Amino acid sequence: MNLELSALCPFGVEKLVKDELKGLGYHVVSSSPGRVDFQGPWEAIYRVNLGSRTAERLLIRLVKAQAQDFDQLFEATRSAAWEDWLTPAVTIHIEKVRLYQSQLTSVPAVQSMVQKAVFETLCRRFRLTRLPQNGPVVALRVTLAKDQLEVFLDTTGAALHNRGYRQDTGEAPLKENLAAALVLFSGWRRKYPLVDPFCGSGTILTEALLYAYDLPPGLKRSFAFEHLRPFSAPDWDHLRDDARQKTDLSHRVRIFGSDKDPVVLRAARKNIQALGLEDHLRLEVKAMEGVSARFWGIEEPGFVVTNPPYGERLETVAAARDLSRAMASWERDFPDWSIGVLTPLESLSQDMGRDPFVVRELSNGPLRVKFFQFAKK
Ligand SMILES: C[S@@+](CC[C@H](N)C(=O)[O-])C[C@H]1O[C@@H](n2cnc3c(N)ncnc32)[C@H](O)[C@@H]1O
Fold this sequence. Notes:
This protein is of the alpha/beta class. It has 2 domains: 3-154, VC0802-like (2-Layer Sandwich); 176-215 and 223-374, 3-Layer(aba) Sandwich (Rossmann fold). The chain is built from 11 helices and 14 strands. The chain has helices at residues 14-23, 42-51, 70-78, 107-125, 176-186, 203-212, 233-246, 262-274, 317-326, 330-333, 348-352; strands spanning 3-8, 27-32, 35-40, 57-66, 91-100, 137-145, 148-154, 194-196, 255-259, 282-285, 303-306, 338-343, 358-364, 367-374. Strands 2-3-1-4-7-6-5 form a 7-stranded mixed sheet. It has a 7-stranded mixed sheet with strand order 10-9-8-11-12-14-13, with helices on one face. β2 and β3 form a beta hairpin. α3 (70-78) runs parallel beside α4 and α5 (176-186) crosses α6 (203-212). Bound molecules: S-adenosylmethionine (SAM). The site of S-adenosylmethionine has 20 residues, from α6.
């Protein structure tokens, strides 16, 4: 049976999520900013949570109905087959309620009505008078947009950017799925060199390594779906064992990272060690002004993918613009390379004195940022 599924993601990354879903063989139905709707079997829950590099969360939509008043909201929610998904052992948490241009406008009231409807169904089906609510948490999300109700069951738990390898961070680490998106947008493949001259705690480098070796990002963590009724531990173990067996660390990969700050570079080393991949890249404490293809001993063109300091959280805008001007030297220092830079600074291409071939608008948490891509000359 195909389920109605929604993959949430950072704004601007929807295309990559769609590509991943189609690559897994699932039918993409539609997409809107930060969300891709698709259909797939129960196994898709395992595969997408385990393997998606760019999604943030995977939800199953269990209710879709008109709800202009509380009676309609209650009836629509109550009639879903909650007993197929939830056992009386879990704690049900209504995690998010989003109301938009609807008759019902009170978040707490919608929240408690949805909870009441779900509880009523479960108590009736399991012949209980109350639910103990002291087991592992399973979260629901509710959207009411123009009176169209959707109730989702979260299969992910901690958002997917929590890969489980990060031991330590710098001051402004990128979310892992956004870092993976930059690598994918850049068009980098493992046969090319990749350099990050502002590598911080190494998120871009780490995601490039996982991608290069086909390592599923979710191998080292647990998921909310492990508490849902259809979960089968043997099937899940089998899928993960299969992924581990397919991992081939013998590919030659050339990934290089530097940062002027020795403390964040130690964090990068720790993170990469946690994955056991420390022998598969090179890291150096070095200010970007001294970094070039020649510095790393690279003779053929490759890819720079990076996230310089912004001027918001790190240093001042003036200092960030000075660095953008310093990046003008990359035309000489990385001759014929593809360059991808993530920044909120509108002035980047002007400061670098170069025209990008594409500028992608993305979200980095609450911050709107742009990924400027400069082609090989
Ligand atoms: C936005 S952070 C990069 C975060 C990184 N992507 C991560 O996920 O951890 C920018 C980094 O640039 C470094 N930095 C600032 N000025 C630099 C310079 N002149 N040369 C090299 N690194 C510099 C900072 O130490 C900081 O780690």
